[in-house]
Write a structure and sequence with these properties.
Strand content: under 5%
Structural class: mainly alpha
Largest sheet: none
Number of strands: 0
Shape: globular
Mean pLDDT: 89
Distance between the termini: 21 Å
Helix content: 55-70%
Order of helices and strands: HHHHHHHHHHHHHHHHHH
Low-confidence stretches: 1-17
C-alpha cells in the first residue's frame, strides 16, 4: 500500500500473556454469548452491537491493524491535496468529503462503518433466523478485526450481504440482478476485487448433487496445493504483482498452517451440510457458502486469498442461524456446537495477533 510510514513491529505468537491485552475483545465475546442465549432476537440489543462495533473499528489506535498507519496517511493526503486516484473512488472521494467537513480519521472511519455495517445489521434484523447468532458469527469469523486492517475489503464485503439477499429473494429476476449488480459496483468502489461477487448468480443456478459438493471441495484443495504463480497470474491481471512480494505466495510453513485451516473450515461446512434439511442444502445461501470454501481451498497458498474469500463467506452469518432452525437435531445443541467451533477460530487468531489488532487502544487524532 502506498504512502506507508514506519510503525512499531510486533511479532505474532501464541502467548498466555497476550490475554491481558485482549480485555475489550473478551468483553465483547462475553456480551455476545449472553445475547445469544438470553435474548437472541432482541432488536434493541442488535442495534447497540451495531453502534458498538462501528465505534470499535472507527476509534482504533494507530497500532491496531497492520495497515492503519497507511490508511491515516491516505486520508490526510487525499483530504489536503485532493483525491489522486488511489484507493478506489468511493473510498477515496468519501474520505476527501469527510476531511473537508472537518472529520478526523477516527470519525470518518466510524461514519463509513455505520454506512456499510448498518445494512448488514438491517439484514440480520429482517432475515436472520437468530440475529444474535448472526452477530456472533460476524464477530467470531474475524470480520470486525479484518476491518481494523483491510478496511476497504471488509466494507466492500459488508455491502455484498444485502446484494446477495436482493439477488436471492428476487429469484434471479431482472430486477434482482439489477439491484445486485448496482450494489456490487458500489462495493467495487471500495475494493475492486468485490467484482468477483458476479460469480454468485451463476453458482446459485447450479443443481449440484451431494456427491459433487464433496468431490468439489476435495479437488479444490488439491488444485490449490498444486497451484503455481504461473497458473494463477492470467486470472488476476494487475494484482499478480502481489504474488512476488513477501505477502504474496505463502512459505512452506505457512502453507501447511493454511492447509489445516482449510481442513477446519471444510469440517464445519460438512457438519453444516450433513445436518441441514434438504431445503437449506439446496438453498442459494448454501451454494455461495460452498463457493467460499472452494475459493479458500484454491487460494490456500496465497497470503491475500482470505481477502477474496471474505466476499463470499459473509453469507455464513445467515447460513448458521438457518442451520439452527432447519436441522435434523436439537436446535440448542447445534447452536452450542457452532458457537464452540467459531470460538476456537476466534481465539486462535486473537492469540496469534492475526491482523495485528492486539492490544487494542484508541487513536489520539
Amino acid at each position: 500500500m502506498g504512502n506507508q510510514t514506519e510503525k512499531p513491529f510486533r511479532t505474532p505468537g501464541i502467548s498466555l500473556f497476550i490475554l491481558k491485552d485482549m480485555g475489550i475483545y473478551i468483553l465483547f465475546y462475553t456480551a455476545l454469548l449472553v445475547y445469544a442465549f438470553a435474548c437472541p432476537r432482541n432488536k434493541t440489543v442488535l442495534t447497540l452491537f451495531c453502534v458498538a462495533f462501528c465505534l470499535l473499528v472507527g476509534m482504533r489506535g494507530i497500532d491496531v491493524g497492520a495497515d492503519t498507519v497507511s490508511y491515516i496517511q491516505i486520508y490526510r493526503d487525499n483530504g489536503r491535496f485532493g483525491y489522486n486516484g488511489y484507493p478506489e473512488f468511493l473510498y477515496g472521494w468519501s474520505g476527501w468529503l469527510m476531511y473537508q467537513c472537518g472529520l478526523n480519521f477516527s470519525e470518518s472511519q466510524t461514519v463509513l462503518m455505520l454506512l456499510t455495517l448498518g445494512p448488514v445489521f438491517y439484514v440480520f434484523a429482517r432475515r436472520s433466523a437468530y440475529p444474535a447468532l448472526s452477530v456472533f458469527t460476524l464477530y467470531s469469523m474475524y470480520f470486525l478485526f479484518y476491518a481494523m486492517n483491510g478496511v476497504r475489503q471488509t466494507m466492500a464485503c459488508f455491502i455484498l450481504l444485502p446484494a446477495y439477499l436482493l439477488l436471492i429473494e428476487n429469484k434471479g429476476t431482472k430486477k434482482g440482478l439489477l439491484q445486485f449488480s448496482a450494489l456490487v459496483f458500489i462495493a467495487s468502489g471500495f475494493h475492486t476485487v468485490a467484482l468477483v461477487a458476479f460469480l454468485a448468480p451463476f453458482v446459485i443456478k447450479l443443481r449440484v448433487k451431494d456427491s459433487a459438493v464433496f468431490v468439489g471441495i476435495f479437488l479444490s484443495l488439491v488444485i490449490g496445493l498444486l497451484m503455481t504463480n504461473d497458473i494463477l497470474t492470467p486470472f488476476i491481471g494487475g494484482y499478480s504483482e502481489y504474488l512476488e512480494k513477501s505477502k504474496g505466495t505463502r512459505t512452506e510453513t505457512r502453507t501447511i498452517m493454511a492447509f489445516f485451516l482449510c481442513i477446519y473450515w471444510m469440517v464445519i461446512f460438512c457438519y453444516t451440510y450433513f445436518l441441514a434439511k434438504r431445503e437449506l442444502r439446496q438453498s442459494a445461501y448454501m451454494k455461495i457458502y460452498w463457493l467460499a470454501i472452494l475459493i479458500n481451498n484454491i487460494l490456500v497458498k496465497q497470503e491475500q486469498g482470505i481477502r477474496v474469500v471474505l466476499f463470499f463467506s459473509i453469507v455464513q452469518t445467515l447460513v448458521y442461524p438457518m442451520l439452527v432452525r432447519d436441522n435434523k437435531e436439537k436446535a440448542a445443541l447445534v447452536q452450542l456446537a457452532l458457537i464452540a467451533l467459531l470460538s476456537i477460530f476466534l481465539f486462535t487468531f486473537l492469540s496469534t495477533n492475526s491482523a495485528m489488532v492486539v492490544p487494542y487502544d484508541t487513536l489520539d487524532d
